[in-house]
Amino acid sequence: MATRAGWITDPAAVIAAVHSALQEALKIPESDRVVRVIEHPPSHFAVPPGRGERFTLVEISMFSGRSMSAKRALYQAIVRNLGALDVPPLDIKISLHEVPPENWGIRGGMPASEIDLGFKVDV
């Protein structure tokens, strides 16, 4: 996720908010934790008109195959969880990048399509 620098006092709480939403909506395991917070100087991060200093762009690369209901649940969980950290709902933009499993090299360079992930993707 990317945001303007200066308002995040507890990056671990922001990471936990996003990861918790991923677990809840997409049913990923706790151990599948890759979340990063990137803070930009305000002069390096233009935001849409009418949005505040806490505007946050959440971009998620994930395996393709999730249902529309799972995506809706994810959007709602992210907005709820970041809202608890005082990010206004209208200041949150979420973009999903769905990548087929064969285009992920994981666990030592294996295509994700060829290994048991340990969780379901088709939720």
TrEMBL record:
Record keywords, A-Z: Pyruvate
Presence of the UniProt keyword Methyltransferase in the record: no
Matches recorded under Pfam families: Tautomerase_2
SUPFAM superfamilies tied to this protein: Tautomerase/MIF
PANTHER family: TAUTOMERASE YOLI-RELATED
Protein name, as recorded: Phenylpyruvate tautomerase PptA, 4-oxalocrotonate tautomerase family
